[in-house]
């Protein structure tokens, strides 16, 4: 083979190799995927509305929450608010707040802690609360049993005299001596009205009933209440009633094997043998309404509420099996009448201790009259403290 022929073969082989290589490259190449299209910009999501802060509510109590009576009833009302509104509210309380200048400090401290609804649960807080309300217009104040109001302060009360009257019916049916006794706390119209109503209830069963009263000049003082109760028993009373906050009167009656009532709360457990019934207050309905008013922006100051059997605030419970059926039936009839408005406790003729007519026949006392009672009705012995 000539050199020329060799060169031709080498050249041909070279071109074949190049062609084969090119073919291999073409067969092995992968097509790159197209770049993904840019996603459209997401629409801005509206932020969830911030959860409103809970309403902070504070209660000032004159006695200990374990008194079994007045303060215990208010604290049950506070718990009813928590149950009703859950995490929409935060409640707190301060117990054993004196009815004095210290109450003002407590109210200011409550407001300083962020409480926007403050309840003062005794008559003696009226002036201190009024003073604080004047300085703290952004806080809502509620005062129990008072009569002074302001732009951001209103009053509320319960018709305790309705419970006192129903207890009196039972006392009139159970007394053997014809003498009943009352341990009085502080001689304000509220308490005097209860003593009179209890007496009139007893006289509706036994017109000859007499009522003796011993005043302790405090709401909660078990030793004084015990001493007063014993004094009444020594004076011939065989059924005791009270307008004080502890169970001391009931327990004293039990030790003497006499009868007595629970007051403000169900006290039947303290002395079951002596207990005839308990005239109770349920503050829950009012506290729930007041809280709802505040939460919904409907709360308004300068007003007052006075609730009783009709509104579910006053009742008489745990009536003893010792009470005759006809007396229980009379209590039920009166309760039904108070609920539907067909019965009025303070309806004439009613005469005072001095024998003078206070209400004429069929005349019904209005709330202004009831709020200013400073006298005893016929049948109550002694003098109203401070009466000339």
What's the quick description here?
The protein has 388 residues and is α/β, with parallel strands linked by helices. Helices cover 38% and strands 18% of the residues.
Please, could you describe this protein's structure?
Mean pLDDT is 90; it is low at 1-37. 38% of the residues lie in helices and 18% in strands. The protein folds into two domains: 55-158 and 284-307, 3-Layer(aba) Sandwich (Rossmann fold), CATH 3.40.50.2300; 160-273 and 311-371, Response regulator (Rossmann fold). The radius of gyration is 39 Å and the shape is globular. A six-stranded parallel β-sheet has the order 2-1-3-4-5-11, with helices on both faces. It has a six-stranded mixed β-sheet with strand order 7-6-8-9-10-12, sandwiched between helices. It has 388 residues and is of the alpha/beta class.
Side-by-side strand order of the widest sheet: 2-1-3-4-5-11
CATH uppermost class of the largest domain? Alpha Beta
Order of helices and strands: HEHEHEHEEHEHEHEHEEHEEHEEH
Quickly count the domains: 2
- Shape from CA axes? globular
Identify the notable features of this structure and list them briefly.
single chain, 388 residues, alpha/beta, Rossmann fold, 2 domains, 6-stranded parallel sheet, 6-stranded mixed sheet, 11 helices, 14 strands, 38% helix, globular, disordered N terminus
């Amino acid at each position: 083979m000539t050199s020329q022929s060799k060169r031709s073969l080498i050249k041909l082989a070279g071109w074949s190799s190049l062609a084969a290589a090119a073919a291999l490259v073409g067969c092995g190449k992968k097509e790159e995927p197209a770049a993904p299209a840019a996603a459209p910009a997401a629409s801005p999501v509206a932020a969830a509305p911030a959860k409103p802060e809970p309403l902070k509510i504070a209660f000032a109590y004159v006695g200990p929450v374990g008194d079994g009576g007045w303060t215990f009833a208010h604290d049950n009302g506070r718990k009813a608010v928590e149950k009703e509104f859950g995490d929409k509210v935060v409640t707190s309380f301060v117990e054993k707040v004196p009815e004095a200048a210290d109450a003002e400090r407590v109210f200011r401290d409550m407001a300083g802690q962020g409480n926007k609804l403050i309840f003062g649960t005794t008559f003696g807080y009226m002036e201190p609360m009024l003073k604080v309300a004047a300085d703290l217009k952004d806080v809502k104040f509620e005062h129990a049993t008072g009569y002074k109001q302001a732009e951001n302060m209103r009053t509320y009360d319960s018709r305790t005299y309705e419970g006192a009257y129903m207890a009196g019916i039972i006392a009139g049916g159970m007394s053997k001596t014809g003498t009943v006794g009352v341990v009085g706390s502080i001689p304000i119209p509220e308490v005097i009205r209860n003593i009179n109503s209890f007496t009139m209830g007893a006289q509706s069963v036994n017109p000859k009933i007499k009522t003796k009263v011993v005043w302790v000049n405090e709401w909660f003082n078990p030793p004084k209440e015990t001493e007063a109760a014993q004094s009444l028993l020594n004076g011939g009373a065989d059924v005791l009633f009270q307008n004080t906050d502890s169970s001391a009167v009931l327990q004293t009656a039990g030790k003497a094997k006499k009868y007595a009532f629970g007051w403000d709360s169900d006290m039947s457990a303290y002395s079951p043998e002596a207990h005839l019934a308990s005239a109770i207050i349920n503050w829950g309905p009012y506290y729930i309404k007041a809280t709802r008013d505040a939460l919904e922006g409907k709360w308004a100051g300068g007003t007052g509420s006075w609730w009783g059997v009709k509104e579910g605030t006053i009742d008489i419970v745990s009536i003893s099996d010792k009470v005759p059926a006809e007396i229980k039936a009379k209590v039920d009839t009166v309760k039904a009448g108070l609920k539907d408005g067909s019965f009025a406790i303070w309806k004439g003729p009613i005469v005072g201790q001095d024998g003078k007519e206070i209400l004429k026949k069929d005349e019904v006392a209005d709330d202004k009259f009831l709020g200013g009672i400073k006298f005893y009705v016929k049948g109550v012995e002694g003098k109203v403290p401070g009466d000339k």
